[in-house]
Amino acid sequence: MAPTVALRLTNVVKRFGNFTALHGIDLDIQDGEFLTIVGPSGSGKTTMVRLLVGMDEPSEGTIHLNGELINDVPANKRPTCMVFQSLALFPHRTVGQNIEFPLKIRGVSAQERRERAHELLALLHLPADYYGKNVMQCSGGERQRVALARALAFDPEILFFDEPLSALDYRLRKTLEKELKDLHRRTGKTFVYITHSLEEAMVMSDRIAIMKEGRIAQLGTADEIYSAPRTRFVAEFMGEVNLFPVTSAPDGALAARDGSLAIAGTAPGLAPGSRATLMIRPEFIRFLGAGDTADCVAEGTVRDEFALGSRLQYEVDLADGQTVTVEKLREDRFPGAIGDSVRLGWDLDHVHFIPEAEES
Ligand code: ATP
């Protein structure tokens, strides 16, 4: 069965005075998916989510929830709920009181509230005796779970998250990323998450929307966007990358425009006579030994080696001044030394081409 659309944005524009923060966004959020909106500061993530939860109205365009137009439906009339970084828990109240709040305002009986609160404590892996504990006595991570339990107590169709983990330390963030992903699976609800952190987006999401200057630069799974970015911006945003301007000759043969590479072969999908950027991720580049061959070969000098936990990263300077980043697992460590002359090689199977028109 085709997935159903929970939220549909059609040509959504948001202006603040003369400034346009969102330029005609079209986006379908599928029922039950985990969609992350990621992008640099000021790219329009918060503006978009404020429109989706009903904290603000679009200047133009439409927002439909389950097929109904909701442009001017206020936040408290939507079946959605927002979890903020600041959490907005009631201090000096117990964990139980915080979780039960949404049920209380809906007139749910004390007995039923208590039962539901205990179910939610269990769902969020919090001990049952936390029910009577003051939230201020909980750790940062526990408070985050209480905020999530409270959001779920609203029983929203869609949960929105605005950088909920950014104030936490690295280890706790990693744990909660996995818990959130698991919670998404167990609840089956639609999660829309905004973050600066690409890593967070990649770990948790079914799909990622990358924002740039009020537009969606690309929408897709982490894998799709990582291996086939549409623009240079997306390629660089998704992690370390090496980019080379190339031209395909009328016979399809490829040549690096700055002479930095020797390329043997043609580029499938690249029209003869066109210009493009050749993209190769660092993990696909090999240090070639004497007699080794590859479709693309560049010569340079190893300038530096960095240890990145399980991997090693090398910076190799080419003669034209360009630096190539190479990544290896520890067991494939470069056998030579810093300052050595090397030949780097990779195959066209691992290359992606960004058309000239999309380079920015
Ligand atoms: P960050 O990651 O820093 O939170 P963001 O991607 O969420 O950034 P937004 O907060 O959506 O970005 O802001 C997008 C642009 O819109 C920014 O240039 C911001 O200055 C502008 N903007 C947002 N809200 C308003 C407002 N109420 N009035 C005027 N300009 C605004």
Descriptive overview:
This is ABC transporter ATP-binding protein. InterPro entries: AAA+_ATPase (IPR003593), ABC_SmlMolc_Importer (IPR050093), ABC_transporter-like_ATP-bd (IPR003439), ABC_transporter-like_CS (IPR017871), Mo/tungstate-bd_C_term_dom (IPR008995), P-loop_NTPase (IPR027417), Transp-assoc_OB_typ2 (IPR013611). The protein is 24% helix and 34% strand. The strands form four sheets. It has a six-stranded mixed sheet with strand order 6-7-8-3-9-10, with helices on both faces. Strands 13, 15, 16, 17, 18 and 19 form a six-stranded antiparallel sheet that branches. A four-stranded antiparallel sheet has the order 2-1-4-5, with helices on one face. Strand 1 and strand 2 form a beta hairpin. Helix 3 crosses helix 4. It is built from eight helices and 20 strands. It has 360 residues and is α+β, with helices and mostly antiparallel strands. The two termini are 38 Å apart. The protein binds adenosine-5'-triphosphate. The site of adenosine-5'-triphosphate has 12 residues, from strand 2 and helix 1.
What is the element layout, followed by pairings?
Layout: E1 5-16, E2 19-30, E3 34-38, H1 45-53, E4 60-65, E5 68-69, E6 80-84, H2 95-105, H3 110-123, H4 140-153, E7 158-162, H5 170-187, E8 190-195, H6 198-204, E9 207-212, E10 215-220, H7 222-227, H8 232-237, E11 242-248, E12 254-256, E13 262-263, E14 275-280, E15 286-288, E16 296-308, E17 311-318, E18 323-329, E19 341-346, E20 352-355
Parallel strand pairs: 3-8, 3-9, 6-7, 7-8
Antiparallel strand pairs: 1-2, 1-4, 4-5, 9-10, 11-12, 11-14, 13-16, 14-20, 15-19, 16-17, 16-19, 17-18
Helix pairs in contact: 2-3, 2-4, 3-4
This protein binds adenosine-5'-triphosphate.
Residues 16, 19, 21, 39, 41-47, 196 line the site of adenosine-5'-triphosphate (ATP).
